[in-house]
Write a structure and sequence with these properties.
Layout: H1 9-88
């Protein structure tokens, strides 16, 4: 059996106002959370793009270095290939 109690109107009004404030703030908080989440995702995407670009520069530089080394090595390789038969002939034969 519940006993009816008299509650001051100021108490019920303050509780009601507090509940309404929470409900009223919810959309603003939700949008704030959405903005923070979106900005973090965009920041991560920009960071990943920068990191990928830097890694590709390292790869391109390595490929360029290897290509230049190959080009410089062609002259010596072709000279060695051309002179090998000359040096492999027995002495005194032409």
């Amino acid at each position: 059996m519940a006993f009816p109690t008299a509650v001051n109107d100021q108490i019920t009004d303050s509780v009601t106002q507090a509940n309404l404030k929470v409900l009223g703030d919810a959309p603003a908080i939700a949008m704030g959370n959405l903005y923070v989440t979106t900005s973090q995702a965009i920041s991560n995407a920009a960071h990943n793009a920068t990191q990928s670009q830097q890694a590709s520069y390292v790869t391109m530089q390595a490929a360029t270095t290897q290509g230049v080394a190959t080009l410089y090595g062609l002259d010596t390789a072709s000279t060695g290939h051309a002179t090998a038969p000359i040096y492999s002939q027995p002495a005194g034969s032409k």
